[in-house]
Design a protein that fits this description.
By secondary structure, the protein is an alpha+beta fold. The protein is built from twelve helices and 23 strands. The protein folds into four domains: 6-94, Rossmann fold, CATH 3.40.50.20; 129-184, ATP-grasp fold, A domain (Dna Ligase, domain 1, 2-Layer Sandwich); 194-316, 2-Layer Sandwich (D-amino Acid Aminotransferase, Chain A, domain 1), CATH 3.30.470.20; 331-420, Phosphoribosylglycinamide synthetase, C-terminal domain (Glycinamide Ribonucleotide Synthetase, Chain A, domain 4), CATH 3.90.600.10. A hairpin with an 8-residue loop joins strand 7 (144-148) and strand 8 (157-160). Helix 5 packs across helix 6 and helix 7 (130-139) packs antiparallel against helix 8 (163-174). Bound molecules: adenosine monophosphate and glycine.
């Protein structure tokens, strides 16, 4: 651990700003580097203009800057093997290998692991062509959930109330190939009913740390209307997340999957994220992700009392077991401020005003923000919008209701052109 002087965080969302913020607060006082980062991460260290998907560029950056540990935020570089490539180059990295990242990158692989480990999940049939999928739809009872097998930035899931909608979804994947090669294999799933929750643990082979949970709001508009987005807000911990549910999710879902992946020869090392539906028959898996959630990270990382740098370091060398992962009982609510039009077309380049000073009670995690012409922030640098999701305002409270009130107070003071946000994040929960 004495060597963790230079820590590189890969990605440019609010999740990566949250990771960088937590790393910057480590008692080991590392220098924080981010690639490519945003105006928020520039306040914590240095941004480097290397894309999260440019694996060779990241390796070069890590070598040039004597990086001691790299933390990967998003799924795409994990799925394309950034961890394997770093390790080949003798570089220390936190996150799963390409083969372990299949738990997110291939929904059919995840289903096979769950079947072998006897983990409750939505029933699914896997298809390689449109004719067989349509024949199945005509013989079964709606509703259906139609999913592209591969990564599709959260868009490859089509909830189909009728057989007709399901057939259209199948055609969009196999015939018009709207999801590219992600849609070469398609799953048709049972539509689960219940409360949705995201569960997170640090996993190192068969070892699963203390877990925590958060809820995310995926639809663009209030009342869960509008298009699916990357997430418009989140809160943690949910009231229904009690010790009994925690135990059940650990013993029925997280541990069997971690153990089975280790037995398969693709041990998972990193943050395992289970997207669950709490149904009348208990928790069932909707999907696994191989990294932190966004916007869940913005409410979960502030609740992490342990040193993230030490956790990531120990996980990267396979010695995480036995290290305590402590989550505070504080409540956090995060509201995403977006550019109006997101997830469709939107304009950017508007100056942002009214940002509060960072405090222990409220943190603004940047996403689509840029600095006008500079990479390092000075006192007078102007921050402007540069993306769909612009920032997450995360606030602490002794209850979710209190955290929610204080988050919206801050949100109401932030101004930029075309600002859009949901008014009902964590309302009535
Ligand atoms: P995914 O990309 O798999 O997370 O799916 C996106 C969203 O679609 C999930 O967060 C759920 O809200 C919904 N969803 C996916 N699969 C199912 C399912 N089998 N039953 C009910 N809702 C689902
Ligand atoms: N919050 C959903 C995701 O990160 O995939």
């Amino acid at each position: 651990m004495g060597l963790a002087k230079n820590v590189l965080i890969v990605g440019n969302g609010a999740r990566e700003h949250a990771i960088a913020w937590k790393i910057a607060s480590s008692p080991h006082k590392p220098r924080v580097l981010t690639a490519p980062g945003n105006a928020g991460t520039a306040q914590l260290g240095t941004n480097f203009d290397v894309s999260a998907e440019d694996i060779e560029g990241l390796v070069k950056l890590a070598c040039d800057e004597s990086v001691d540990l790299t933390i990967i935020g998003p799924e795409v570089p994990l799925a394309t093997g950034v961890v394997d490539r770093f390790r080949e180059g003798g570089l220390r990295v936190f996150g799963p290998t390409k083969s372990a990242a299949r738990i997110e990158a291939s929904k059919s692989f995840a289903k096979d692991v769950m079947a072998a480990a006897n983990v409750p999940t939505a029933e699914a049939e896997v298809f390689q062509n449109a004719a067989a999928a349509i024949e199945y739809i005509e013989s079964a009872t709606p509703p259906f959930v139609v999913k592209a097998d591969g990564l599709a930035a959260g868009k490859g899931v089509i909830m189909s109330a009728t057989a007709e909608e399901a057939v259209d979804a199948i055609n969009s994947m196999f015939v018009s190939q709207e999801f590219g090669s992600a849609g070469d294999t398609v799953l048709i799933e049972e539509w689960l009913q219940g409360q949705e929750v995201s569960v997170f643990a640090f996993v190192d082979g068969p070892y699963v740390s203390e877990m925590t949970a958060a809820c995310d709001y995926k639809r663009a508009k209030d009342g869960d209307l509008g298009l699916n987005t990357g997430g418009m807000g989140s809160y943690s911990p949910p009231r229904f997340w009690d010790e009994e549910l925690d135990k059940r999710v650990r013993s029925e879902i997280m541990e069997p999957v971690a153990t089975h992946m280790a037995q398969l020869g693709c041990p998972f090392q990193g943050i395992l994220y289970a997207g669950l539906m709490i149904t009348e028959d208990g928790p069932k898996v909707i999907e696994f992700n191989c990294r932190m959630g966004d916007p869940e990270a913005q409410v979960v990382i502030p609740r992490l009392k342990s040193d993230l740098l030490e956790l990531a370091w120990r996980s990267s060398e396979g010695s995480l077991a036995g290290l305590e992962v402590e989550w505070s009982s504080d409540s956090w609510v995060g509201v995403v401020l977006a550019s109006d039009g997101y997830p469709g077309k939107y304009e950017t380049g508007f100056e942002i005003d009214g940002l509060p000073d960072q405090s222990e009670e409220c943190i603004v995690f940047h996403a689509g923000t840029g600095l006008v012409e500079v990479l390092e922030l000075d006192q007078n640098a102007k921050i402007s919008t540069s993306g769909g999701r612009v920032m997450t305002v995360s606030s602490r409270g002794d209850s979710i209701a209190e955290a929610r009130r204080s988050a919206y107070e801050v949100v109401d003071g932030v101004q930029f052109g075309n600002v859009y946000f949901r008014r009902d994040i964590a309302a009535g929960v």
